[in-house]
C-alpha cells in the first residue's frame, strides 16, 4: 500500500456551487467572499453567532437578496449548471417553487395563515399543474401524517395551530413537491426543547428518505450534530472554519469555534 | 497478510485558544500498520493520547501531519487528504468506529439505531433487522427494549447497543474505544467473541482495552503510546509476562 497508488474516485457533480459571494449593507458587511459546494443529498450546516452573516448568506442563496459580487451556480434539472443570478425573476420563482424548498424561521412567514392546512400543502402541487381535488387532498393528508399532524385538522387554518405544528406544516408544504434542495433558517428556533427533538427526528428521517440536499442555518450545535454532514462556521461575515461536522465540533481549530463549542452547556 | 490500515508520520497537537493559547503536543511521527485479521491494542497510561490517536484514525480529530492509508473500494486512499464527502463514504463502508458512549438520537428505537449503518451501507432492510436482532440477543438486550429509544437505557445497555451498531457491518477496519468499559463478565465475554469472530473474517482491529483479561483474549500486539516519548511496539505475550 503506497502513496503513489493514490487515486481519487470521481466526485458527484455539485448541485449548488457558490464562489466569491459578498454582500454589504452600505458600510456594514453582510457576508464576505464565501465559496462552497453542496452535492446532491448532502446536508450542510452553517453556524455562527447572531450577526455573523448566516441569514444574509441564506437569503442570497435562495434568491431573496441580490449579492454584490460572486456567482451561484445551480444544476437545473433540464438545463444543467446555471448561474441563478442571471435568471429572470419568473424563472427564479419557478425554480424556488419546484426544485427548492425554503423553510423560514418563523412559520408564519412560510405559510398562508388564512388557507387550510391541506390547502397549504396542496398549493405547490397545484402550481405545478395538479388539478384533481381528490388526489391533491390525498397527497396533502399523506404529508400531514408524515409530519404527524392529526388528519382531523386538515381543514383547519394554521392560525389555530401551535408553533411546533405550524413548523411541521411548513416543512410538509415545502417537501411535498420533492425539491432537490431545501434552505432552512433556524428550523427549530423558538420551539420548546421537547418539540425540537420531535422536529429534528422528523427532519432527519425525511432528509434521508427523500435524499434531498439541505442548507441549514442555525446557532444550535445540537441541531447540526444531528442533521448536517458538513459544517461551516461563520464570524463577522466570513467562513472561519469548515469541515465534517464531527471534526469541526470535536476538534475545533479556530479560536472562535473553540469558544462556541466550549460554551455549550452540558445537560 | 494484507495491510488494511497504514498510518504514517501522524502528528497531533492541540492549541487551546480559549485557555491562553496553550499548545499541547500529543504524539509525533507515529507509524502504525494493521494487517487483516490482526487486533492491535493501543497501550499507555491515562492521558497518553490513546483516544486521540484512535479518533485521528477515524478522521474525527484532524492530525497536523501524516497520512492514513486504507483500501476503499479497491483503491488506496489517504483519509486525511480526502474531501469531506469521501470521508463520509469511507466511513460508511470501510472504517467503523465504536465510541465509548452511544450518541443517542431522540425517538429512534434501539433496533433501528443498530440497523441504520447496515441499511446505509446497502444491506436489505430485512437482513439488517435479522442481523441486528441476533446481535442484540447475543449482547443480552431484552427484546422488550428493542423498540424503545436508548436514551432511557442504563450506561451498559447503551454501550451494548453501540457495540451492536459497530459490528453489524463487516468494515474492513474497525476501531474500538474501550468497548467493554461498563459491561459485566457475561457481556465482556460476548464482546471478546465478537472481536475474535471479526478477526477470523479478516477484519483489522485497533482498540483501547483497559481490561487486562479482554486485552489478553483479543490483542495480537500492543502499540505503546506515551507522552513525548518515542512510540514502540511490544508483543502482547512479552508484556503479559512482564506484568505477571
Automatic annotation (TrEMBL), chain A:
<dbReference type="InterPro" id="IPR003593">
    <property type="entry name" value="AAA+_ATPase"/>
</dbReference>
<keyword id="KW-0456">Lyase</keyword>
<dbReference type="Pfam" id="PF00005">
    <property type="entry name" value="ABC_tran"/>
</dbReference>
<feature type="domain" description="ABC transporter">
    <location>
        <begin position="16"/>
        <end position="261"/>
    </location>
</feature>
<dbReference type="InterPro" id="IPR027417">
    <property type="entry name" value="P-loop_NTPase"/>
</dbReference>
<dbReference type="GO" id="GO:0016887">
    <property type="term" value="F:ATP hydrolysis activity"/>
</dbReference>
<dbReference type="InterPro" id="IPR017871">
    <property type="entry name" value="ABC_transporter-like_CS"/>
</dbReference>
<dbReference type="GO" id="GO:0019700">
    <property type="term" value="P:organic phosphonate catabolic process"/>
</dbReference>
<dbReference type="GO" id="GO:0016829">
    <property type="term" value="F:lyase activity"/>
</dbReference>
<dbReference type="InterPro" id="IPR012700">
    <property type="entry name" value="PhnK"/>
</dbReference>
<keyword id="KW-0813">Transport</keyword>
<dbReference type="GO" id="GO:0005524">
    <property type="term" value="F:ATP binding"/>
</dbReference>
<protein>
    <submittedName>
        <fullName>Phosphonate C-P lyase system protein PhnK</fullName>
    </submittedName>
</protein>
<keyword id="KW-0067">ATP-binding</keyword>
<comment type="similarity">
    <text>Belongs to the ABC transporter superfamily.</text>
</comment>
<keyword id="KW-0547">Nucleotide-binding</keyword>
<dbReference type="GO" id="GO:0015833">
    <property type="term" value="P:peptide transport"/>
</dbReference>
<dbReference type="InterPro" id="IPR013563">
    <property type="entry name" value="Oligopep_ABC_C"/>
</dbReference>
<dbReference type="GO" id="GO:0005886">
    <property type="term" value="C:plasma membrane"/>
</dbReference>
<dbReference type="Pfam" id="PF08352">
    <property type="entry name" value="oligo_HPY"/>
</dbReference>
<dbReference type="InterPro" id="IPR003439">
    <property type="entry name" value="ABC_transporter-like_ATP-bd"/>
</dbReference>
Automatic annotation (TrEMBL), chain B:
<dbReference type="InterPro" id="IPR017871">
    <property type="entry name" value="ABC_transporter-like_CS"/>
</dbReference>
<comment type="similarity">
    <text>Belongs to the ABC transporter superfamily.</text>
</comment>
<dbReference type="GO" id="GO:0005524">
    <property type="term" value="F:ATP binding"/>
</dbReference>
<dbReference type="Pfam" id="PF00005">
    <property type="entry name" value="ABC_tran"/>
</dbReference>
<keyword id="KW-0456">Lyase</keyword>
<dbReference type="InterPro" id="IPR003439">
    <property type="entry name" value="ABC_transporter-like_ATP-bd"/>
</dbReference>
<dbReference type="GO" id="GO:0016887">
    <property type="term" value="F:ATP hydrolysis activity"/>
</dbReference>
<dbReference type="InterPro" id="IPR027417">
    <property type="entry name" value="P-loop_NTPase"/>
</dbReference>
<dbReference type="GO" id="GO:0016829">
    <property type="term" value="F:lyase activity"/>
</dbReference>
<feature type="domain" description="ABC transporter">
    <location>
        <begin position="5"/>
        <end position="244"/>
    </location>
</feature>
<keyword id="KW-0547">Nucleotide-binding</keyword>
<protein>
    <submittedName>
        <fullName>Phosphonate C-P lyase system protein PhnL</fullName>
    </submittedName>
</protein>
<dbReference type="InterPro" id="IPR012701">
    <property type="entry name" value="CP_lyase_PhnL"/>
</dbReference>
<keyword id="KW-0067">ATP-binding</keyword>
<dbReference type="InterPro" id="IPR003593">
    <property type="entry name" value="AAA+_ATPase"/>
</dbReference>
Amino acid at each position: 500500500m503506497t502513496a503513489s497508488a493514490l487515486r481519487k474516485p470521481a466526485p458527484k457533480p455539485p448541485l449548488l456551487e457558490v464562489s466569491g459571494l459578498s454582500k454589504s449593507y452600505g458600510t456594514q458587511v453582510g457576508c464576505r467572499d464565501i465559496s462552497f459546494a453542496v452535492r446532491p443529498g448532502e446536508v450542510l450546516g452553517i453556524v455562527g453567532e447572531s450577526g455573523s452573516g448566516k441569514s444574509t448568506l441564506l437569503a442570497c442563496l435562495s434568491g431573496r437578496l441580490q449579492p454584490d459580487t460572486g456567482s451561484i451556480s445551480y444544476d437545473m434539472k433540464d438545463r444543467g449548471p446555471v448561474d441563478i443570478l442571471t435568471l429572470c425573476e419568473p424563472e427564479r420563482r419557478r425554480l424556488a417553487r419546484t426544485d427548492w424548498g425554503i423553510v423560514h424561521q418563523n412559520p408564519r412567514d412560510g405559510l398562508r395563515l388564512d388557507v387550510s392546512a391541506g390547502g397549504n400543502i396542496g398549493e405547490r402541487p397545484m402550481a405545478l399543474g395538479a388539478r384533481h381535488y381528490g388526489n391533491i387532498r390525498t397527497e396533502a393528508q399523506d404529508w400531514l401524517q408524515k409530519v404527524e399532524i392529526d388528519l382531523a385538522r386538515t381543514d383547519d387554518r394554521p392560525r389555530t395551530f401551535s408553533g411546533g405544528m405550524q413548523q411541521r406544516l411548513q416543512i410538509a408544504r415545502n417537501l411535498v413537491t420533492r425539491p432537490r434542495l431545501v434552505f432552512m433558517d433556524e428550523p427549530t428556533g423558538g420551539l420548546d426543547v421537547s418539540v425540537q427533538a420531535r422536529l429534528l427526528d422528523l427532519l432527519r428521517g425525511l432528509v434521508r428518505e427523500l435524499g434531498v440536499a439541505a442548507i441549514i442555518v442555525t446557532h444550535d450545535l445540537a441541531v447540526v450534530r444531528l442533521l448536517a454532514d458538513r459544517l461551516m462556521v461563520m464570524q463577522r461575515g466570513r467562513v472561519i472554519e469548515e469541515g465534517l461536522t464531527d471534526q469541526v465540533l470535536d476538534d475545533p481549530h479556530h479560536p472562535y469555534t473553540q469558544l462556541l463549542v466550549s460554551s455549550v452547556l452540558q445537560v | 497478510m494484507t495491510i488494511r490500515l497504514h498510518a504514517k508520520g501522524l502528528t497531533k497537537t492541540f492549541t487551546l485558544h480559549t485557555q491562553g493559547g496553550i499548545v499541547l503536543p500529543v504524539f509525533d511521527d507515529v507509524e502504525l500498520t494493521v494487517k487483516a485479521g490482526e487486533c492491535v491494542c493501543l497501550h499507555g497510561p491515562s492521558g497518553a493520547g490513546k483516544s486521540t490517536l484512535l479518533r485521528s484514525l477515524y478522521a474525527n480529530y484532524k492530525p497536523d501531519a501524516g497520512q492514513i492509508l486504507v483500501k476503499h473500494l479497491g483503491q488506496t486512499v489517504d483519509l486525511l487528504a480526502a474531501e469531506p464527502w469521501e470521508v463520509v463514504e469511507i466511513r460508511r463502508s470501510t472504517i467503523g468506529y465504536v465510541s465509548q458512549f452511544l450518541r443517542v438520537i431522540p425517538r429512534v428505537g434501539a433496533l433501528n439505531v443498530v440497523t441504520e449503518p447496515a441499511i446505509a451501507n446497502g444491506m436489505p432492510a430485512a437482513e439488517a433487522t435479522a442481523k441486528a436482532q441476533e446481535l442484540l440477543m447475543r449482547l443480552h438486550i431484552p427484546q422488550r427494549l428493542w423498540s424503545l429509544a436508548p436514551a432511557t437505557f442504563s450506561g451498559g445497555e447503551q454501550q451494548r447497543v453501540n457495540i451492536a451498531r459497530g459490528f453489524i457491518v463487516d468494515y474492513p477496519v474497525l476501531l474500538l474505544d474501550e468497548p467493554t468499559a461498563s459491561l459485566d463478565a457475561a457481556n465482556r465475554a460476548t464482546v471478546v467473541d465478537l472481536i475474535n469472530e471479526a478477526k477470523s473474517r479478516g477484519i483489522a482491529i485497533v482498540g483501547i482495552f483497559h481490561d487486562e483479561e479482554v486485552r489478553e483474549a483479543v490483542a495480537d500486539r500492543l502499540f505503546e503510546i506515551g507522552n513525548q516519548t518515542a512510540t514502540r511496539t511490544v508483543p502482547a505475550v512479552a508484556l503479559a509476562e512482564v506484568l505477571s
